[in-house]
Amino acid sequence: MLTGELVAARLKGAANGSNLTGDLAYHPAAPPTEAATPAGVPPDEPPAQIRGVLTLDHLSLGALASLALGPAQPAKPGQMWSDLKFSPALASPPSTDVSLSIAALDITSDLPARDASIRLKIGPGVVALDDMTMRAAGGAVSGRATFRRDGANAALSGRIAVDSVTVDRPGLSAKVTGVMDFADTGQSSNGLIAGLAGTGHIQLTSAQLPHLDPDALSRVVDKAQAAGFEIENVDINRLLAAEMDRRPMLIADATAPAAISAGVLRVGPFEGRRPSGAAKVQADLDLRSLALDIRADIAEGQAPKFWSGAPPAISVALNGRIGALSRTIDTANLANGLEAQAIARETERIAAFEADIRERAAFNRRLKASRFLRQRELEQEAFAADQVRLKSEVERRRVEEDALKVSEEEKAEAARKADDARKAEEEARKASPPAPLPPIAPPPPFSPIAAPTDIAPAAMQPPPKRPQLLDPTANGIY
Question: What DSSP designation does 286 have?
Fold first, then answer.
């Protein structure tokens, strides 16, 4: 029976396709003692049988897990993890406590790490990977993982922490910092991942989602308010897709809770940066297929005119592998809201048009009534003026007739007086003796001399004066 220590110094060799160097020491297991352990005090862990330090240039995390779970089993086509049960665990391995330094460690097939340091512990039914540290994706990764075997069942528990790990894929870019505690049991790799559960938190820094401009909703809603926009002739989905392609969504630096349930890691919500409104982002990572599902809910801060219900909002889903996400935009609620808004706007326009028609009709009625009343006033004023003119004309004619009558009376009186004077003169002439006739002178001798030219013609008597008529306007009658 070996009772001393066996030391292997400056080892050089190969293991699992990787070159290794280091020092190992083997200590035989101490015989069990019958010393009683005080109640409530756990028994001391026996010293490891194999201790030492190993340096490897390349190793995979799956190779270390196979120490507890057995060799990797083949998976079905289209699956990442095998449904076949784990191989039996090592029957009675020697207890081991070895520090591993690994230059290149494959965490997954497409996620390499470097400068890894792991403390490997192996005991009856237990394989522990303690004090893990490494550099990966521009950041640091640390944690621990413990595998336990109980027959066909395997149990996994541990903790993982990442610090400033860079994710730079076509569908997502960010720096990730966070901590997750996890645990699970299963009989196969797929079953172990499918039942994984845990809690923690994740912080995102400088995160952005390409082709997901949150202000695209505001621009589409603004376009829908313009005159001539016909919702029935516009493909809202295509319009939104074109607007979202203009810029990425910038996610505010923040820490959000994270949880693992049934093999799905759920993170969020995070806030998207935008000047108005809200944008919330949540993500689910299915660890069974590494399919990523990002959901972004974008909403306006306030509803536009004629909008009914909650402000305009859309939902965008990014699905697929991290490097090949496909975008799906749910615009059903937005399209329904825009259609309802268009109906309300048209109803308002028709109502305003009808009100304008009624107002114009009322104005025309008032205008016609005003014109009719004004015409009536003018007619009444004209009638009154005609009445005044007719009355003045009648008065003028009356005055003229009176003046004419007075003039005729005066003329008749003057004629009567002239006739009386003539009669009196004739009577006086008849009463007086006739005057003697003058002697007749002899005619002058005939002489051829021209008739005298200095004989003045007899003076003409002026015509008798007509009686003057009275002016009816002289006294201001007219």
Answer: E
Give the model's confidence band at 477: pLDDT under 50 very low, under 70 low, under 90 confident, else very high.
very low
The strand pair at 50-56 and 96-108 is best described as parallel
∠ CA 76-77-78, nearest 5°, is 110
Q: In angstroms, what is the C-alpha Rg of the chain?
A: 65
H/E element holding 316? strand 313-321
- What per-residue confidence (pLDDT) applies to 269? 93
How far, in Å, CA of 13 to CA of 244, rounded?
56
First to last CA, the chain: 166
- CB atoms under 10 Å from CB of 156, counted, come to 20
Q: Is 305 helix (H, G, I), strand (E, B) or coil?
A: coil
Structure tokens at 408: 């005729």
Instruction: Identify the H or E element spanning 231.
Output: none
Give the Cα separation of 156 and 128 in Å (integer). Answer: 10
DSSP string of 104-164? EEEEETTEEEEEEEEEEEEETTEEEEEEEEEEETTEEEEEEEEEEEETTEEEEEEEEEEEE
CA–CA dist 321, 169 (Å, integer): 10
- Token output for 276: 């108005």
Map out the domains of the chain as residue ranges.
Answer: 6-29+46-147
Is residue 69 within 8 Å of 186, Cβ to Cβ?
A: no
Contact status, residue 263 vs residue 287, Cβ threshold 8 Å? yes
Residue 164 is predicted with a pLDDT of 94
188 DSSP 8-state letter:
B
pLDDT in tens, 191-204: 999 999 999 999 99
Q: Side-chain half-sphere of 333: how many Cα atoms within 13 Å?
A: 16
Pairing mode, if any, of strands 172-186 and 153-169? antiparallel
- pLDDT, tens digit (0-9, with 9 covering 90-100), for 53-109: 999 999 999 889 888 888 888 888 888 888 899 888 766 778 899 999 999 999 887
Q: Is 253 helix (H, G, I), strand (E, B) or coil?
A: coil
CA distance 250 to 326: 18
pLDDT band of 437, cuts 50, 70, 90: low
* pLDDT band (50, 70, 90) for residue 419: confident
Q: Which of 275-289, 344-358, 457-471 has the lowest mean pLDDT?
A: 457-471
Question: What's residue 406's pLDDT?
Answer: 87
Q: Which residues, in sequence order, are CB contacts of 367 under 8 Å at separation 6+?
A: none
From the list 211, 206, 231, the residue with the least C-alpha distance to 221 is: 231
Q: What is the DSSP string of 320-374?
A: EETTS-EEEEE-HHHHHHHHHHHHHHHHHHHHHHHHHHHHHHHHHHHHHHHHHHH
